[in-house]
Structure formats: C-alpha cells, structure tokens
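Fold it.
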Amino acid sequence: MKLFTIGFTKSKAANFFQRLEVSGVRHVADTRLNRVSQLSGFAKQDDLKFFLEKLAGIGYSVQDVLAPTADILEAYRKKEIGWKEYADRYMTLLSVRRAEKRVDLNSLDHGCLLCSEATPDHCHRRLAAEYLADTVNGLKIIHL
C-alpha cells in the first residue's frame, strides 16, 4: 500500500498536477487547517477539487482530523515553540483524536496527503503519514 504526500508552495500548477498523475495518485486528502487562503493560488479548496477531478481524474476530500490546531500552528509560526515541540504536540493531537480510526484507511492506498509546505522535512503531512504508517501494516510513504 502506497501513501503519497505533496505540498504546493514553490510549485507551478503544471508541475504539481503532473507529479500527482505520474505517481498514480487516485485521491488527495487535504490536511490543511486553512484551505482558502489568498496565498493558496490554484490550491484553494474548491479550485483544487475542480482541477484534480477535471484535469487528472483524481478524487479530493478534506481530512480535518489530520489538520493541526490553530494554536499549535500559530505557536510554531510565531517561533514560540520549535519544530520538536510542534511535532510532539501534533503527534499527541493525532493520538487524542484517534486519527487512525477516523480516516478511511482504504483511501490511503494510492492516496496523497496534501499541505502547503514545499518539502516534507518540517511539515505536518509527513508526521501524519508516519503516524498512519505506524497503524497500517505495509504502508509505504512516498513524498512527491
């Protein structure tokens, strides 16, 4: 079972959609807290859903259970906490939410977790994928 992750910043729309198509992604799960920001460009929730379905035949859903809370995200962005504490708080949040019970595990196969960060290094989508991989045997994570 393959689970992909992708971010859209620093990416042109053509490259973003091509990476999804070439990899064989069948469904994108949006894990962002804010899905309609002006900074989102082509990745605003309604536009992204339309583009995914019409351009690539890829499904789209919102996975609020995998989004960070506003207070955790804001503390990290304001540099009140570092990456380690952010990651610890976020992983605890997923555990408290029992995210593995609330995500459709069947949709994970060739599914893709989406957020805004260009790379997975300091991004909650990587943490969410790792959390889910701990509960789903044989889940392989691939960062696009």
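The mean pLDDT is 93.
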